[in-house]
Amino acid sequence: MAFPKGFLWGGAIAANQAEGAYLEDGKGLTTVDLLPTGSKRWDIMFGKLESFTPLEGEFYPSHEAIDFYHRYKEDIALFKEMGFKSLRLSISWARIFPTGEEDQPNEAGLKFYDDLFDELVKNDIEPVVTIAHFDVPVHLVEKYGSWRDRKLVGLFEKYATTLFKRYKGKVKYWMTFNEINMLLHLPYVGAGLVFKEGDNKKQIQYQAAHHQLVASALAVKACHEISPDAKIGCMLAAGMTYSYTCNPEDVWDAMEKDRESFFFIDVQSRGEYPGYAKRYFRDHNLSIEMEEADEALLKDNTVDYIGFSYYASRATSTDPNVKDMTSGNVFGSIENPYLEKSEWGWTIDPKGFRITANQLYDRYQKPLFVVENGLGAVDVVAEDGVVHDDYRIDYLKKHLAEMSEAIEDGVEIIGYTSWGPIDIVSASSGEMKKRYGYIYVDKDNKGNGTLNRSKKKSFDWYKKVIETNGENLED
């Protein structure tokens, strides 16, 4: 169960799910700030937005979240106590450029992240920073239609370049877009896309994808030029697709579903559009507008490592009689009879973690960074004041064991930041009751609570894992 020396153990959060202070110190509205709880949330995530301002009578969990903006020192002290070597987090684009179009960045926003990174470094915790984690200034959505417009490429390049210059020497690990393939599944979340009746959604999505891929390449180029010692990666929502049977039609369908996600990383890691993507565009009459320099830009500016999230595997069948679908997973999957499920209907598949890591490394031959993995569950505070989350320990223990096996297989993995080391707002449902953390935050789905932090049983378990560099996974 040995992990490499210097392995980056830690946890992962996102600005829009943790910070709160949604209009403080000059910050502008971002796309997530328009996502309420309830049924409207899902309509918006798929691209149906009623208003470019928050609506009266709706509850928007991102507006306060867990108030990490004001409490980050308290939280970092707890991460330090667990022994974190790294913390993956994101920067809110609208804290730096409130509308996305300002000539000069917002100094108050820059200073907040300066102070945050300084606090991490002071506690020997390496910042791992995502430039865009489901985060687009609302002004850019309203004025340009977000990433459907090429204008965002230049604006993102300015934003990324500003970050590299400001935080040179403080941040050594960067990622461009969080779960970039989510653009195809939750287009508003992934790229701020809003659709109107009659839109060719696939055309818009893949054009937006091209713009993000070009923007990512420009960010890689800028990072390498400004901060040559830093590493910059991409990030995939991963999880392999199983063929339900050995019917060749099922096997082909599973491969195509995996390619739908691999497409993005193929471009970011290999530097060119794969043949299967070009055929898909032809077969679906999609015409992707590209500039003359795009191909060379993509080829010359590939990422240094592959970041990925892993929560669940998927399964597919071409048999119309196989209809039982899992719930709670935006990728869509038929039920796998060999696997258990979480309270939200996500399959629990530790072996799939090992398979996925091998699959990615075999494909790209670049270092991998596991930047999200964890179990969302309803946690109950017991009479002794502690959440006894043995179910979470069991989930993580099995996944870490399989990650260790993947390393033994020869897969190069540089770190592991489990998702939500402290309870934060769920990206999908906007709930607080879907908890991932080792640290309990006293807040409910309606925003009530003290926001007090307390340690769960898993806190001491993960501390021991880190202390032993993964050699002791027992509770």
Automatic annotation (TrEMBL):
GO molecular-function term, one example from the UniProt record: beta-glucosidase activity
InterPro entries: GH (IPR017853), GH_1_N_CS (IPR033132), Glyco_hydro_1 (IPR001360), Glyco_hydro_1_AS (IPR018120)
Source species, domain of life: Bacteria
Swiss-Prot/TrEMBL keywords: Glycosidase, Hydrolase
GO cellular component: cytosol
Gene Ontology biological process terms from the UniProt entry: carbohydrate catabolic process
Active site per database record: E372 (nucleophile)
PANTHER family for the chain: 6-PHOSPHO-BETA-GLUCOSIDASE, GLYCOSYL HYDROLASE
Family under the similarity heading: Belongs to the glycosyl hydrolase 1 family.
Family matches, as NCBIfam families: PRK09593.1, PRK09852.1
Protein name (database record): 6-phospho-beta-glucosidase
Organism field: Litchfieldia salsa
